Amino acid sequence: MPVATNDPNLLISTLIDHELGSWRHYRLRDLFLPMDVEAILKIPLRRTSQPNFAVWHYSADGRFSIRSAYHLAWSMRQVGASPSAPRSWTFLWAAKVPPKVRLFAWKACHNALPTSQNLQQRMGSLLGMSYVRRRV
Length: 136
Description:
Blueprint: E1 16-17, E2 22-23, H1 25-31, H2 34-41, H3 66-78, H4 90-94, H5 99-109, H6 116-127
Protein name: Reverse transcriptase zinc-binding domain-containing protein
Pfam families: zf-RVT
InterPro entries: RVT-Znf
C-alpha cells in the first residue's frame, strides 16, 4: 500500500538506481499507486546523470519570468477565471514560487498593478492631475 508523503525534499533521483540505470521498483511501490508505478516505469531513463532543476511550464524555455507570469494571469482572466472565485486561486497560493511571484500574479489578475492607466485612475483624480503617455 503506498504511503502518502508531502516531503518537499523528495527528489526523483532517490527513485533511481544510478548504478544500474533503472527505476527502484520497491521505492516506487512504496510511494505510488500501482497504475502510477506502471506509468512511471514506462518513462525511459538517461544513462548520464544530471542534477534536478525546476521547470516553469508556462514558458517555452522552462524559465520563470515576470512576463510569463503576467501572460499566464492574463490568459486566466481571458478564459473566465473570476478573481472572486476562491477555488481558482488555490493553485496560486499553493504554488512553489517566491511570494512576490504569487502576489504579482494575483495583482495582475485583479488589475492592481501600478500601470500608468491604473495610476491615472486612482491618483490622478485625487491629485487633480492627468498623465500623458509618451510614445516610445
